[in-house]
Amino acid sequence: MPSPAPDTPRARTFRYDLTASLVVFLVAVPLCVGVAVASGVPAELGIVTGIVGGLLTGFLPGSSLQVSGPAAGLTVLVYEAVQTYGLAALGVLVLAAGLLQLAMGALKLGRWFRAISVAVVQGMLAGIGLVLIAGQVYALADLEAPGSGLAKLAGIPGLVLDVAASPEALAAVCVGVGTVVLLVVWPRWKAAARVLPAPLVAVAAATLAVAVFGLPVARVEVKGLLDAVQPPGGAEFAALADVAMLGTVLAFALIASAESLFSAAAVDRLHNGARTDYDKELMAQGAGNAVCGALGALPMTAVIVRSAANVQAGARTKASRVLHGVWLLVFAAAFPAALGVIPVAALAGVLVHAGFKLIPWKDLGPLWREHRGELAILVTTAVAIVVGNLFEGVLIGLLLAVAKTAWQVSHVHIDVTEEPVAEEGTQPALKIRVLGNATFLRLPKLLDALEALPADRELHLDLSGLRHVDHACAMALATWQERHNALAGAAPPVKVTPLAGAEA
């Protein structure tokens, strides 16, 4: 009789990682396929990106427990890029973005992503979520969505009428809505949710319902893994000379990097293991995207849904995420036809649910009560993404965040007091003390206070409390002093206590 396998710490760790890898694999399959379909590319390309995220990025140092793959957060940008430049150009865009991420990691820029305003990131995710929902409600009915975010929103009343008039569209909507309901309800059954993840259950149930009842709904089109892989050619690389394409590359790199590194920060809060090395994680993501681009696949990021599932399933080391890539490869090689039975409406339901979760609903109330400026940045960023596009919306959000910070930092306080009288019968001199940071943003307030002072009194302007004064304020103060002395006539000139060690 063979002896049982030794229960060593290494063996126990492997068992935890093996179990976690299977859970992450079951979560990843519907998400990889759904993101690909929503991005307007063959479903297999989403699987390819998931495989690279496991087998390559999973091996590399950085964050040991977060899992990479195609993400809903880049769906809108990928769809726009494919519609503008064509599917053939996707590979070179992703490859260039990956090389840029590698360069940023080598230059130690990963840690600086932590300095991005949280309101901008939340606004970016909220905007992506809104556009994702607006686009996928059309896919719920097996209908094609309009191009822009505003057109999607404006077309929803017409969509309702089209669904009401079409039994096929109504059947697809029932499948999609049923998927969303299962995604919401299943996690509440905690014992079952620990065994089978909600996305897998929802998609499997929708697929079974369509097969049993013979519903006339669209299904995922399958080409085969090798047929879907199309490495970029020379013509696609030559197109990088286009400034617009370079802007798309920059958007891919920055947004994928920000999403990955913010995901890493979130995953670090879920476990007590080793913390993320942000620069190494950025390089790992860059290496993964470079390979995905060479294969013509979707861009990857670290994905919080899969990463959280990995931690909650008990993963101990990076072996769990590598093994999840192995299972994806085996699934794609052995069971490619399984993708062809999945209804598109079910995947649309998965992404509608994912888009809803991207919106930070719980943070809106506290922001309204305590930080309305941050809420304004969040809402403006989200609206700009819906009205325009992802890259422009994020830039607008960053500019607003910088402007808000500059306004808050350039606080200046003006204190006017009377000094002791030197001789009886004379008016006391006024001491004007200026404190804080005098910048052009506060120049109107500063000049209004100075110009309201009486011209016939002795004035003492004390600037020693200023920490910083910019050129505009320095010139304005000098001009005011000259004008006051010229208008005061016989009154004593303004006495000035200069800056004491402040930056000028």
UniProtKB/TrEMBL annotation:
Main localization, broad class: membrane
TM annotation in the entry: 20-38, 45-65, 85-107, 119-141, 169-186, 198-217, 237-256, 326-356, 376-403
A family per Pfam: Sulfate_transp
Cellular-component GO terms for this entry: membrane
Record PANTHER family: SULFATE TRANSPORTER (PTHR11814)
Keyword hit for Transmembrane: yes
Keywords linked to the UniProt accession: Membrane, Transmembrane, Transmembrane helix
All residue ranges annotated as the SLC26A/SulP transporter domain in the record: 14-380
Cellular localisation: Membrane
Membrane topology: Multi-pass membrane protein
Protein name: SulP family inorganic anion transporter
Domain of life per record: Bacteria
Keyword Cytoplasm carried by entry: no
A biological process term (GO) from this entry: transmembrane transport
